[in-house]
Specification:
Elements: H1 4-28, H2 32-42, H3 61-69, H4 73-88, H5 92-100, H6 114-125, H7 136-147, H8 153-184, H9 190-231, H10 248-254, H11 259-262, H12 277-284, H13 301-315, E1 317-318, E2 323-324, H14 347-353, H15 355-365, H16 375-379, H17 396-405, H18 413-418, H19 422-429, H20 432-435, H21 447-450
Antiparallel strand pairs: 1-2
The structure holds heme C (HEC) (6 copies).
One heme C binds near residues 271, 351, 377 and 394.
Protein name: Cytochrome c2
Pfam family, one: Cytochrom_C
GO molecular function: electron transfer activity; heme binding; metal ion binding
């Protein structure tokens, strides 16, 4: 006879898988906490949740636009990414709201990923409550609401169906258990015996379907968990406010100042530091006001002049007497890129040894979007950003993907020296793509290379 106990266990495994699948889909939903961060960094200059500032109040904007205008989150994605393009496309509501706000231009956010926008929208739908309420029931209710933003109907449907399937499985298991008890009991009545028999026949016939279902669930669960892990600590688009409004677009773009003039340590070491105020003073001792042609929408000359004055305040420079007063106040830049402590990342490996390899490979992959400076392969077009923002997700998957696909130059000075003996051996060992050697061949996928 079939061992029912064994199948009982399988059922439990299936339920476990189901639960983890739904949990991980849950995890992929808009994350209001991250949304809050992004909102504060990108939107608070012009928007508040509860009151109109430069633009309209955004609390509950998803529902409001749905009920009042019949617009979905797709529209919001388009608007937030590039409201100008949307207006130009003739979209009715986009032009209406623009007129209504006296043609005040909203900034475009081409660098916000769809997930970022989902997170921001989740935040406007369910902003975390500032002060915990005295009523514990109310607090738990909002907590769960935060974890499951209501705007994502698709995943809600998936979650509900998964829970329904889980319920069904539990029911079947209970029934099975009853049958097991029956089957084991000494005094099987004729009726029960035929029941058990016919059930085993059915099982024999159809158990492949069950196994198939189990396999599908296992795949879904693995996929979900993988996605969930991959999203931990992703801050693509993170763009905090800085103590001085330093524009890379004005420095590296308009004035073509070389990245490494300011971030000189990238070449030599592990970190690529933020320049000290002395570096700023090399130029700003003489550049005390802004006379550039380029002015960012919403800013003006007076604003830039004020920001340059902050350099003098920080370094204690008396512009009139042309001397330092000795009174300095440190400028505390907010760090944007920050790998966890257990990751080892070395700029010089990439900026010196890998420079040509990375530029060549990037340009091959992006023929319409070529780069001239190695930094841009990882940091994006910083020279077009007024405010630096993370251009990639800087996850392990991102590092690995590049190591798998970037062909290195074994003949550059650095590698020739470093890999003298390895060189020929590798060429024989990695004949794929006709002897091409990618970073993984020199250990770029070894855990210990990137982790302490
Ligand atoms: C420079 C100011 C500015 C910034 C920054 C800004 N917005 Fe706006 N936003 C506006 C203005 C002004 C409007 C009103 C429409 C118009 O004039 O174009 C608007 C309209 C909107 C609307 C339409 C609301 C409605 O009721 O129709 C949404 C949604 C929106 N903004 C989201 C965002 C998000 C999300 C961010 C941050 C990622 C953001 N905005 C950043 C100025 C801004
Ligand atoms: C004139 C000096 C100067 C130049 C030139 C310059 N930077 Fe910067 N960079 C700064 C300062 C100051 C900051 C800190 C403030 C900020 O984040 O905007 C910074 C921040 C950054 C950051 C973010 C650091 C963090 O906190 O994680 C990156 C990445 C960066 N720069 C890359 C570049 C690249 C790439 C170029 C060339 C295209 C470049 N920089 C050119 C001064 C400069
Ligand atoms: C290699 C020269 C150079 C260095 C170094 C330099 N700047 Fe500038 N900075 C300029 C130039 C050029 C302008 C534009 C002036 C103009 O067009 O009239 C400018 C403009 C500015 C402005 C007004 C525009 C804006 O970006 O908001 C600020 C603020 C500023 N710099 C801050 C800094 C800070 C802070 C540092 C040090 C981290 C720094 N600069 C280092 C050359 C430099
Ligand atoms: C292969 C990808 C890659 C390239 C190429 C690259 N960076 Fe970075 N950069 C990173 C990573 C990853 C971090 C985060 C490092 C950390 O947190 O330890 C970072 C961080 C930074 C920071 C913040 C300070 C720090 O070191 O953590 C600055 C500034 C910076 N990069 C500038 C540059 C400049 C300038 C160049 C070109 C000369 C450049 N980067 C080239 C990946 C890259
Ligand atoms: C844009 C492509 C690119 C990205 C993204 C990238 N790398 Fe690399 N990496 C390279 C190249 C190319 C080399 C080989 C340089 C050489 O020696 O020729 C390299 C080499 C390395 C090495 C040395 C490997 C060895 O065996 O000597 C380490 C460690 C490393 N990278 C860590 C990282 C980490 C950590 C990240 C993510 C934070 C990362 N890299 C992201 C292109 C990349
Ligand atoms: C090319 C560089 C690189 C290699 C090789 C690499 N890692 Fe990572 N790993 C990273 C980076 C970068 C992070 C941090 C990602 C983040 O903060 O989102 C990370 C994060 C992790 C985490 C934490 C989980 C998380 O997402 O935060 C674990 C666990 C881990 N790595 C294990 C491994 C193991 C095991 C290997 C070997 C099979 C390995 N790593 C190889 C770069 C690498």
């Amino acid at each position: 006879m079939i061992s029912w106990r064994k199948h009982y266990k399988k059922g439990l495994i299936a339920i476990g898988l189901l639960l983890s699948t739904s949990a991980s889909i849950y995890g992929q939903d808009g994350d209001p906490k991250n949304g809050e961060k992004l909102f504060k960094a990108n939107c608070t200059a012009c928007h508040a949740l509860d009151k109109q500032v430069v633009g309209p109040a955004l609390k509950g904007v998803v529902d409001r636009l749905k009920t009042e205008q019949g617009l979905d989150t797709d529209w919001l994605h388009k608007w937030i990414k590039d409201n100008k393009a949307l207006r130009a496309s003739g979209d009715k509501y986009a032009n209406e709201v623009f007129e209504k706000f006296n043609k005040t231009e909203m900034q475009v956010f081409p660098n916000l990923a769809d997930k970022d926008i989902d997170d921001i929208l989740a935040y406007t739908t369910n902003p975390p409550v500032e002060e915990p309420k005295a009523d514990p029931a109310a607090t738990t209710a909002t907590d769960t609401a935060n974890a499951a933003p209501a705007n994502n109907t698709t995943s809600s449907i998936v979650i509900i169906s998964l829970i329904a399937i889980a319920g069904l499985l539990v029911w079947i298991l209970v029934k099975l258990r009853q049958l097991v008890k029956l089957g084991q009991s000494e005094e099987l009545t004729g009726l029960n015996e035929t029941r058990v028999k016919s059930f085993s026949e059915i099982y024999e016939k159809y158990h492949y379907i069950g196994k198939g279902l189990l396999a599908v669930l296992a795949i879904l669960a693995t996929y979900g968990i993988w996605n969930w892990i991959m999203w931990i600590g992703v801050y693509k688009g993170y763009k905090p406010e800085q103590p001085i409004y330093f524009s890379h677009k004005i420095h590296a773009g308009e004035n073509k100042i070389d990245c490494q003039l300011c971030h000189s340590s990238a070449k030599y070491g592990k970190v690529s530091e933020i320049p000290s105020m002395n570096v700023c003073m090399n130029c700003h001792r003489t550049i005390s006001e802004y006379n550039g042609k380029y002015i960012e929408p919403g800013k003006d000359k007076a604003f830039y002049d004020g920001e340059i004055q902050k350099i003098y305040a920080a370094t204690g420079w008396d512009a009139e007497k042309q001397q330092y007063t000795g009174k300095t106040t440190p400028v505390e830049w907010t760090r944007i890129h920050n790998m966890p402590d257990f990751v080892y990342f070395n700029h010089s490996q990439h900026v010196v040894a890998g420079e040509q390899a990375i530029i060549n490979s990037f340009n091959k992959k992006n023929p319409d979007n070529k780069i001239d400076v190695v930094c841009k392969a990882c940091h994006g077009k910083i020279d077009t950003m007024n405010v630096v923002q993370m251009a990639n997700d800087f996850t392990m998957g991102w590092c690995i993907e590049c190591h798998r696909t970037t062909e290195i130059d074994m003949n550059n000075g650095y590698n020739k020296e470093y890999f003298k003996n390895l060189h020929e051996k590798l060429k024989k060992q990695y004949p794929k793509d006709g002897g091409k050697i990618t970073v993984d061949a020199i250990g770029g996928l070894e855990c210990g290379k990137c982790h302490y």
